Amino acid sequence: MKISEQWLREWVNPNNDTQALADQLTMAGLEIDDIEAVAADFSGVVVGEVISVEQHPDADKLRVTQVNINSDAPLQIVCGAPNVRVGMRAPVATIGAKLPTADGQGFKIKKSKLRGVESQGMLCGASEIDLPDVVDGLLELPDDAPIGTDIREYLGLDNKILDISITPNRGDCFSVRGIAREIGVINGLPITAPEVTAQADEVQASQAVTVEATEACPRYLAQPVLEIDRSIETPDWMQKSLLQSGQRLHNFLVDVTNYVLLELGQPLHAFDADKIVGDIQVRMAKAGEQLELLNEQTVTLTGDELVIADDQGILALAGIMGGMRSSVSDSTTNIVLESAFFDQLAIAGRARRFGLHTDASQRFERGVDFELPLTALRRAVNLISSIAHGKAGQITVIEHSDKLPKRAPVQLPFNKVAEVIGIEIEKQRIIDILTQLEIDVEVSEQDGSTVFNCLPPSHRFDIEIKEDLIEEIARIYGYDNIPSTLPKLGVDMRYDDTADLTHRLKLAMVDAGYMEAISFSFSDEKIENILDDVNLGNLLALANPISSDLAVMRRTLLSSLIPCVQYNLNRQQPRVRFFETGLSFVGATIDELVQTPSLAIVATGDVYPEQAHSNRAMDFFDLKHDVEQLLPATLDESRISYQRSELAFLHPGQSAELLIDGEVVGWLGQLHPSVAQKLDLPSTWVAQLALAPILGQARAVQSITSPSKFPQVRRDIALLVDAEVSRQALSQSIRQAGGALLQQHWLFDVYQGEHTPQGMRSVAFALVWQDPAQTLSDDVVNDAMQKVIAALQTEHGAQLRDS
């Protein structure tokens, strides 16, 4: 936000220079981004009056003028400006004056001759003194401009513009009044606000108003102002204040509302009273309604926007921008001024929805003082009446006090201040600071301790807890007055290894050829709907999304990874491997939201990068291998199992759920072909694991045993089993029947073809036994093998193959 220093000093004028003032504001939490000069440095230019104009004897386009600057004698100046005339007042650069140039070097005015006629200075246009040119020729000054006065002083060109960065919680500082209030508190000075009077009704006119959306608009004021003299232009002082604060000039009525907006922080809107049909209605929009805005953009409303309407339709998008139909023009003489309090949530996000960003929406989204509308309305009416002789009508006030924000008292224990800030500040100093901030303070004793009972003012809606009050005390007391001391830290030997273990998982993925992606936790609702599944849970929509394609919280990290894959495929990268760690969010409301730390994988293309020898497309077992690289090496294989996944967005025959000790910890598989088609993806492999159980297994303390020094005994077994029996089921039976001495077993052959019965397949397992205490005898191994064979025959109908 840009604010004129001169305008600020009209409200409060501390005895310090511009830089010191900027430093004070920065230390108080209102960072100064830049300090701009209104005009470049120049000197020797004064107000002059042209007292005669004669044609140059040797040049058709030059004039010889006599100019009074209140010196001993008039100056003779040769001038080529087309608008020079007798009686006009304009800036005069005298001999020795230094004027600005684009290169910053400047040039000096010397006595010279133009076509043989002596010239003792230069009459200046606006650009010669670093102001924008409005007319072709000299800068015309008002007839009452004091002759001989330094032009920098007269035009306020020594003024500076402060570009202030306002944090989202300090909506009260989006005005001259708000910043002046801060400066006054910092320097212990009162502010001098302009006098605002309650104007008596000058005409018997009022505007009927009905408010249907009372939650979104609990306070609405409207006042007619009639018979405005539109021949009167916006005064120079108002124009200067607006221009120096980065505002464009429009017409007098719009300029007044913009001036009050900048001065007090309350957005106002002026409707052409003669264009309003019937009553003003404050209501929610109806889906499909359209409005042509003042910027000539036509918007179609969805139904959750707050609007100002009349009997004929919508007049304005409340708190954002007015409509073209009721706009004021240069011929408007009768207006209805609107001043209202709109709830933040009713305005937030609506402007961005239509690609708009206005001064009004910026303030309403951050919060406006709910007690300000009447003061701002009176200020605007005072200005219109005093400058353009408008006649004020009656104020219509529609108010629902129970819907207005409430300022809840906050208790602040005195000892809490020192505990947080680190130094003890005197009680009276704390009371003085809070009182200067317009916070009502009552001191009480509770359990032998002093407690400050504080009631924040209406404009400080950001003060809700005691820490907010402590922040106010610290910044006004001065951060530079708080000594730097090292904190006393108790040593906690407990170590949270989550970050280290997660980093190891990331390194495992990198070793497997994947690249890490880092995304927002927000995702595109279209992708979420394509990946929809009852097992994923409910979807949480954002109330104020940063963009339309980041409008919901992601239920799976795939919602973030899939756009990364699409982006790369669109740029001729056929082989893509990504992983991401982060939170997934399930739940339709904040109260029921479940956040799960997860790791997700996405892969498409061939198994290997492009190379000369043979390659092949990635398949389920390649993905399974990559997923298993994330499991701790110490995790016993017997505790790991898989089962068919029921997720609708996965291929039913190429997907599975991963279980540890019978608990599902994630899923993996191929995106369903129909889903891949909707996402414009080729065959794509995906997986997602919950991090907590994986990290828990990595932390588990493993018992260490010495390897057996006695030999292993291996036996192989070949079976005919039903083709529907899974390897996992067979392995489980072998493991349970093989006994404690069975160290490991694995499948090493699978055959299904013409030499096996229909519906059957041949499988072969290797089994290894070993005793840590002695050499195994054949009898022990044979007995164990018979138990394994019996279990496989009984549980799965397996048949031993002859060879």
What does this structure look like?
The chain has 21 helices and 39 strands. Helix 5 crosses helix 6. Strand 33 and strand 34 form a beta hairpin. By secondary structure, it is of the alpha+beta class. 25% of the residues lie in helices and 28% in strands. The strands form ten sheets. A seven-stranded mixed β-sheet has the order 27-30-31-35-34-33-32, sandwiched between helices.
Provide a count of the helices. Answer: 21
Any idea what the radius of gyration is? 40 Å
Give the CA-CA distance, first to last residue: 87 Å
The count of strands amounts to 39
Structure class: alpha+beta
Question: Shape from CA axes?
Answer: elongated
Query: What percentage of amino acids are in beta strands?
Result: 25-35%
The side-by-side strand order for the widest beta sheet comes to 27-30-31-35-34-33-32
Proportion in helices? 25-40%
Rounded average pLDDT: 91
Please mark out the parts with pLDDT under 50 across 5 or more consecutive residues, or reply none: none
Short description:
By secondary structure, this protein is α+β, with helices and mostly antiparallel strands.
List key phrases describing it.
single chain, 803 residues, alpha+beta, six-stranded antiparallel beta sheet, 39 strands, 25% helix
Describe the secondary-structure layout.
Elements: E1 2-4, H1 5-11, H2 18-27, E2 31-37, E3 43-55, E4 63-68, E5 75-79, E6 89-99, E7 107-108, E8 112-114, E9 117-119, E10 122-123, H3 151-155, E11 160-165, H4 176-187, E12 209-211, E13 219-226, H5 236-244, H6 252-264, E14 268-272, E15 280-284, E16 290-292, E17 298-300, E18 306-310, E19 313-317, E20 321-322, E21 335-341, H7 344-347, H8 350-353, H9 359-366, H10 373-388, E22 391-392, E23 396-399, E24 410-413, H11 414-421, H12 427-436, E25 440-446, E26 449-455, H13 466-477, H14 498-511, E27 515-516, E28 522-523, H15 525-530, E29 552-553, H16 558-569, E30 576-586, E31 594-604, H17 620-628, E32 640-644, E33 650-660, E34 663-671, H18 673-678, E35 684-690, H19 691-699, E36 713-722, H20 727-737, E37 742-751, E38 760-769, H21 778-796, E39 799-800
Parallel strand pairs: 12-15, 27-30
Antiparallel strand pairs: 1-11, 2-11, 3-4, 3-6, 4-5, 6-7, 6-10, 8-9, 13-21, 13-22, 13-23, 14-21, 15-18, 16-17, 18-19, 19-20, 24-26, 25-26, 28-29, 30-31, 31-35, 32-33, 33-34, 34-35, 36-38, 36-39, 37-38
